[in-house]
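Title: Request for sanity check on adenylate cyclase prediction

Description:
We are preparing a figure and want to confirm that the structure record we downloaded matches what your pipeline produces today. Could someone re-run it with the sequence below and paste the raw structure tokens into this thread? We only need the token string, no images.
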Amino acid sequence: PARLIGGASVAFDSNTPQLIRKGGAVTTIREDGEGVGKYLPISGTVFVIGLSVPDVKEIARKLEERNDLRVIVLFAEFSFLYDLFATALNNTAGAARLVFATSLPHWGDTETSSKTAQLFHDVEKDSRLWTPLSLLAFATGRLMRVILLHVEEMSPDTLVNFFYADSSIISDDMRYGVFDDTKCDTAEKLPKDDCASNYGATQVSVWSMARALNASIPPLANPMTPSMSLRDPSEGKLSGASLVGVIIGATFALFLMVALGVVPYFVLRSTRDNNSAPKEPTDPVTIVFTDIE
């Protein structure tokens, strides 16, 4: 399981730890302004949420020192700190072990088949400005353009209603959704209850920082649309203590069955030698017949 580390000001929701299984994290909350370095394990996988600028160098240093450490970050935070991560991890082995998930195409791939990335490169000619944040902004603008073509007047309510009315929205080669509020009785319940589902991105892939710096490096996991059905991996499984109890109980039951079978065999096997039975073969024997249905 991965360890989840978050800043004190970060709000956690049920959709946050998608790269780690729900219920499989040891959560540590650090105070505002406190460095992340002392919380990073020597080995294993750690999910860090609530990154600050000083955390970038600390994470890069720990990744270089600890070959068995993998750090997962949110794409939103990675995008804001991309330039710092690129500087700190460029040409390092640790770049392969900084991990994030995204549904975007590669912002720097000049041979991409993605229409969104191609349009982005047509609009922004300067490759120095090709970053995840700028591509995200461009894709968001393209999405808003699709929405504006279908609404007469834009407002927060109109925007929300459009997403949930259309369920799934396609912009260029990007698909967003499914958005579903059919379980909500009233509009007032939408922001308060968990009756609505907003699955957002589709075709999500897992990247390393090494791929972010070099588009020719394949993703760690190919694009897929998660079911968003979160399940405790331990659900339906026995805990360690329960498993030990089952083994001990089964062993005791086995010994008991053996005892019940073997002991009577040795103790009762001579009971047919009745002392009152005739000793001579010619002595009379009384046979009693009973009715047998």
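Thanks, this matches our download. The chain is about 35% helix and 15% strand.
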